[in-house]
Request: fold
Amino acid sequence: MRGMLWILISAVASLWIGTAAAEEGPIRLGLIDIYSGPFAFQTSQIKLGFEIALDEANAAGGVNGRKFELVTADMGTSVEKAITEGRRLIFNDHLHYVTVGSHAGAALALGQLIKGRDDVLLLGGLANSKHYTAEVGGPMIGRTNLSTVEMGRILAEHLKSMPEVKRIATIAPDFEFGREFMADFTEALKSTRPDITVVQQQWSKMGNTDFTPQVTALQSAPVDLVVSALVSGDLINFLKAAKGFGLFSAKTRFFNNGLDLTKLSSYRDGLPDGSLAFAWYPFYAIHTPESAKFNDAVEKRSKSYPVGSTLVGYVAGKVLTTAIMKGGSPDTPMAASKALDGLQLASPVGTVSVRGCDNVASYNYYLGVVKRAPEFPDGIGLTDVKAYDPGKYARPCSEILKLRSGS
Reply:
C-alpha cells in the first residue's frame, strides 16, 4: 500500500514539475513555410522579419520574463507536408501558436485541422486565401495580410485612372492564390470597369521553368495590359520568355501582383520600365521613424535592405507577440485571440489595425510604376507610389459571418 502511495505521489509531482516547466519556459512560436527551392529567398525574408519582431518583444521583457522562441518547419511546396509539420508542432511539440508563412493552400488545410480547438492560434502571413478567415475562419484563426478580395478590388479601382486600358489578359500560378486573385480581380472589374474585356487567362504550375507556351498564347491576341500574379522564380522565368518573344511594348504594358516579395533587381533583366506593380514595402518612398528603425534592423542582420516579404513577416510576428503579451496568459491562446480584437500597433508602413470579427490585420498596401534610376536600391524601384487602405475594400463583417455559418 505504501509503495502504491509513493508511486501516486511521484506521478503527481512529475506532472506538476512538467506543467511548471512549460509555464516557465520559452513561449514557442511555430513558422511553417517553403524553405527550399525557388521561393527560399522570399520565405527567408518572412522569417527575418518575424525574428526582428520577436527580438523586439523579448527586449521589452516578453511575458512575465518568459521570452519568445521561434520554431521553423519546412513544408517544401507540399500541402500534405505542411499538414504533417503542423501536426508535429501542435500535437507532438505542443505549440500553442503557429503561423503559415506563404502558402494559401497550407493555411486552409491547417485551418481545417484546428477547427473547433481552443488550444492553438493559427495565423496566415502571406497566405491570403479569402476562404481562410471566412468559411474556414473562427476565433482561433487570423491573418496578417490582405486577401485576394482586397487585392483584386484595389487593382480594379486603380484602373479607373487608366481609361486607355480596354483589353487585358491574365497569367497566374495554378493554385489557390493565383486562381482566387484572378477570380476576385475579374469580378471587381464588372462593377468598377465594365468596359474592360478579359481576352484570355493563362495558368502555370508552381516552379515552371519554361513559359514559352503561355507567352506565345498571350501574343496571339494583343491586349493593353497583361495582369500577372506570378511570384519569385516563376516571375523571373516568365519575364525571360516574355523578353525573348518581345511580348511587351508601348502598346502592351505589364502589371504584377507583389513584385517586391523578393528584390526588384532579380527581375531587372526582363522587367519593362513603366510596368505597374503592387508592393508591400517600397521603403525608399516611406519616410517615418518606424520605417528607418526597421530598415536598420534588417541591414544589421542581413547586410542588405528589406523587401515586401520581410515586412509581412515582421507584421505577423509583431501582431502575434503583441496579442500574446496583451492577453497575459501565453499558455492560453484564447487570451491572445481575444486580445486581437481592436488591436492597433505602429509599424514601418503606419498603423496596423486588427478587426475582431475575423482577426485580420490591415495596413497600407502600395501600387507604383517601375523605373530604373540610381536613387533606387540596385538601380530599380517604384515611382508614383500610391498607398491604399485594404480595410476600405474588405468584405463587411456581416458577410464574413454569413459565409462562416454556411448560410
